[in-house]
Design a protein that fits this description.
Helix content: 25-40%
Strand order of the largest sheet: 3-2-1-4-5
CATH class of the largest domain: Alpha Beta
Protein name: Integrase catalytic domain-containing protein
Low-confidence stretches: 194-203, 259-268, 276-294
GO molecular function: nucleic acid binding
Strand content: 15-25%
Largest sheet: 5 strands, mixed
Number of domains: 4
InterPro entries: Integrase_cat-core, Retrovirus_Pol_polyprotein, RNaseH-like_sf, RNaseH_sf
CATH architecture of the largest domain: 2-Layer Sandwich
Mean pLDDT: 78
Number of strands: 12
């Protein structure tokens, strides 16, 4: 608005006059665009099940309930038939059964989340409900990011049913995504490593020559590669079959056993001893020295004497 006014009128201190008039206008303050607000982060958690964030998402005209434990980024999701408090309570009790009850449950101002029976159930289990300010979805940011992860994962899935796609998206998130320390949600919550993690004694910044299978999120099949260098605790440089180098996370790698197809032939090592020269002169008659093969000394007994005699006669 200020640019438009300045392009049409020229006056001294016109900008200050416009701003002052706008601040005094009651209609402008009531219906005008709100100023940018300062968003403060949630206090950090120290253990699992301290604070969960909850929301309802919809994709392909199907709704699902999702919760996330912000300490370990553990996602829980289930399909819901409708948005009634009873249906939400049914799925939420299933989350409590498998993962325990949180201390705080953060959600938006959806009517079913503020239902009296729903709040009574939470307080009966020692859970304190929190609600984000109206028209401020940024305050419920953790679950908004998880909704995006689930929707993107289901969009990439090739499975047929909605439940299978949702399950695959949750499993891929638990096994694949990592934090700054290189730990997946599985490891942070269950204290276990995913099956396809490289299990070795990791030391940062080292040269490697390790055969692996790798699969990035935009790939459908596992491909062969060789880890040539380790950049950090969970970041590796992989050389592909096309002799290209890719920077890949450790959660997208798994060990590849080398299969030797060539037959191994055992070769007897050569005799390191030098050939021996003996003098075969009889009655002081000069003769040329005879060079004996080292194979003669590998025989024993009569066979050794016959071999030496044969070599002396045919020399």
């Amino acid at each position: 608005m200020l640019r438009r006014v300045r392009s049409m009128f020229v006056a001294v201190s016109i900008r200050k006059w416009i701003v002052a008039t706008h601040m005094k206008c009651d209609l402008c303050q009531r219906y005008g665009s709100s100023r940018p607000r300062t968003i403060h982060s949630w206090p950090p958690t120290t253990s699992n099940n301290q604070r969960w964030h909850m929301d309802i998402g919809t994709t392909d005209q199907v709704s699902f309930l999702a919760c996330v434990d912000v300490h370990c980024n553990w996602i829980m999701a289930a399909r819901i038939k409708n948005h009634t408090p009873s249906e939400i309570t049914k799925k939420l009790l299933l989350f409590f059964e498998h993962n325990g009850c949180p201390l705080f449950l953060v959600s938006d101002n959806f009517p079913s989340f503020k239902d009296v029976s729903f709040c009574t159930l939470l307080k009966g289990k020692g859970i304190t409900p929190f609600y984000s300010p109206p028209y401020t979805p940024q305050s419920n940011g953790p679950i908004e990011r998880c909704m995006k992860i689930l929707k993107d994962g289901m969009a990439k899935s090739s499975l047929s049913t909605f439940d299978q796609r949702l399950q695959e998206a949750v499993i891929n998130h638990h096994n694949g995504s990592t934090d700054v320390d290189g730990k997946s949600p599985n490891q942070r919550r269950l204290q276990v490593l995913a099956d396809y993690h490289i299990i070795n004694d990791i030391s940062y910044e080292k040269v490697m020559n390790h055969s692996v299978w790798f699969k990035t999120p935009n790939m459908t099949n596992w491909e062969e590669g060789i880890v040539t260098y380790q950049l950090s605790k969970d970041i590796f440089i992989v050389r592909t079959k096309d002799d290209k180098e890719m920077v890949i996370k450790g959660c997208h790698l798994k060990d590849r056993l080398k299969t030797e197809t060539s037959q191994t032939i055992k070769v007897r090592p050569a005799d390191p001893r030098p050939p021996m020269t003996i003098d075969s002169s009889i009655d002081s008659e000069p003769t040329k020295p005879v060079l004996l093969d080292s194979r003669a000394f590998q025989l024993r007994g009569g066979r050794k004497r016959k071999m030496i005699k044969f070599l002396l006669v045919n020399s």
